[in-house]
Amino acid sequence: MRINKVAFIGKGGVGLLYGSMIARVLGDDAVEFVMDDARYERHAADQLRINGEPCSLRSVRASEATPADLVILTIKTTGLNQALDTMEAVVGPETRIASLCNGITSEQKIAERFGWQRTVLGICQGMDAVFLNNELTYGKPGEIRFGAAPDTDPAVVADIADLYSRAGIAHVV
């Protein structure tokens, strides 16, 4: 399946970094940051910048979100349980899931809720992203290392690798 719509759960440095790279290729409408309604209200007026340029990536209330082809979690692991609830709105029958959370148990918790077939193991490293006062600055986007767990559908890995290649995101499977 060709991935054309990506929902991020987590709108900090890592999410904005990779979300902006994907949006450059797929267009701003193909990337959205999904958040619970209370978080959306707190951040609706944020004026974000990436390396000094205005960021036009949109945020969406979970209550108004629709399923995406890929969900990427870019949250702190302490917010994982709330993020899983938020994800319910964007995970459909064909949705693939990638976690770039800090910590080593996020994929297990994701798979318990949504299944290993669609979930890949992953980590990002080597970026110098700094997100402060609504501005992301970076010079090195780093790379994503990811792959299949024993029950992950190999097509899920191939679909995500294809997206990362199209977006120019360095990755290793």
> Total number of helical segments?
5
Low-confidence stretches: none
Q: Would you tell me the structural class of the helices and strands?
A: alpha/beta
* Strand element count: 12
**Multimeric status of the protein:** single chain
Share of helical residues:
25-40%
Q: Which overall shape is indicated by the principal axes computed on the Cα atoms?
A: globular
- How many strands, what sense, and barrel or not for the largest sheet? 8 strands, mixed
Strand composition percent: 25-35%
Query: Strand sequence of the main sheet, in spatial order?
Result: 5-2-1-6-7-8-11-12
Radius of gyration: 15 Å
**Which H/E pattern describes the elements?**
EHEHEEEEHEHEEEEHE
Return the average pLDDT rounded to an integer.
Answer: 95
Distance between the termini: 18 Å
